[in-house]
Amino acid sequence: MKTIDEQLEDALARAKRLEADAQAGSALLTEASKQSDDLRQRLTTLTTDNETLVLTNGELTEQRDQLASDLATAKQSLTSAATAAEELTKAKDHLTALSAEVEKLKADAKSAERIAAERYGAASPQPLPVTSRGDAKADELVTKFKAITDPKEQTAFWRSLSTEQRTLILNAQ
Fold first, then answer.
1. 63 to each of 24, 51, 52, 70, 72, how far by Cα in Å?
2. Exposure check for the chain: N or C terminus, fewer CB within 10 A?
């Protein structure tokens, strides 16, 4: 058996150990409390981040849907533009054909003008003398025609006349 002093020493040593264990437990509890607070903060941050990500995901989904709609519209516009381009190409070809026909008609008209000029003597740079035969209409037209001295103006005047008026002038010579 142990003496009272030994028992007291054992009790004091045990009390110191228990006190040390209590301090270590307290330190562990403080550390666990800090970790718990950190985990709560991280949980709050993660919850906030999750809510932000859910909102962002919703916005991105809306943007994706809008872009898909815009893409469909653009494809339709592209198809319409391609159709319009085909129509324009056809119209251009038609216009080219019409231009060629106009040029042919112009050439034919110039040939007809040359033939008429050769037949009626208007091919010279000087205007032909015009005389009247007593016809009042023919007299008036011949007078107007003689009053014009510029060959270009005479040609313009001649072209502005009807076939009947031209015949009157030609017969008045």
1. 57, 18, 16, 10, 14
2. N
